[in-house]
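Students often ask what a holo structure prediction actually looks like on paper. The answer is less mysterious than it sounds. You provide the chain, you provide the ligand, and the output is a string of discrete structure tokens encoding the 3D arrangement of the protein together with guanosine-5'-monophosphate.
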Amino acid sequence: MNRGRIIVLSGPSGVGKTTLCKSIINKRPDIRYSISATSRKRRKDEIDGREYIFLTEEEFKRWIEEDRFVEYASVHGNLYGTPRSELEGRLEKGVNVLMDIDVQGAKKMMSLYPDGIYIFIIPPDISELQRRLLKRKTEQDEVIKNRLANALKELEYKKDFQYVVENRDLDKTKKELIEIIEKELGPVQTDRRDD
Ligand code: 5GP
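The corresponding structure tokens follow.
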């Protein structure tokens, strides 16, 4: 069996990447989600080991020293990284791996995994992004301002991506992503699982 491939979803936060990732995973049993580690505080609806592996900053730095990340970056003042354990064994078994990472991480992955599928999700416009971030009601105003400023900066990276998908209508975007994946990977291959 061929090695699995990585599928990277990147783009400003609040653009709907989490929802889109869940929808991909539900439709494609031959793709597994890579759970990142982060030093940011857990939100109240999040579970350690499900959305993220939550580490203290000190623990995160120890993981860096122990070379346990394929890539890591500081995003909005917190550390985020992809643990090697989420990736390498699975790809060897032929399982494809989906990642939701920021543009710095995506660029690193492009150099390490040139055969990956790189998709940039853009918001229809910045006021829509602001509305979505405010609707999320999990962060303070300052944090939202900071995230919006970063979003504007991140939009400049879209030229590096193989695919750019505008998330105007969630159902349409989900379909579009499944079409891209089908074009790249072919139909679901049920023998590509790691459970
Ligand atoms: P949030 O705190 O809203 O869950 O995520 C903030 C940002 O961190 C998102 O844009 C997400 O793509 C990014 N992110 C999550 N995990 C990783 C990771 O492992 N590496 C990198 N570089 N960015 C990540």
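The mean pLDDT is 92.
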